[in-house]
Amino acid sequence: MKRPSKKEIEEAVKKLKGESSGQAALPEPKVGQPTEKKTSQRIRKQGI
Fold first, then answer.
1. What pLDDT was estimated at residue 14?
2. How far apart are CA 40 and CA 31, in angstroms?
3. What is the rounded distance in angstroms from the CA atom of residue 38 to the CA atom of residue 45?
4. Are 12 and 4 spatial neighbours (Cβ–Cβ below 8 Å)?
């Protein structure tokens, strides 16, 4: 596979930030709380 250049990476980051800044800014904290609970349950099941 071809590795992307710095310019391509920067453009992709700008696109992601542009799309997520308005839409995903609010859902992120809401999604973060349940995922923490899921990870703690997984850790308990594994016995770590």
1. 82
2. 15
3. 11
4. yes
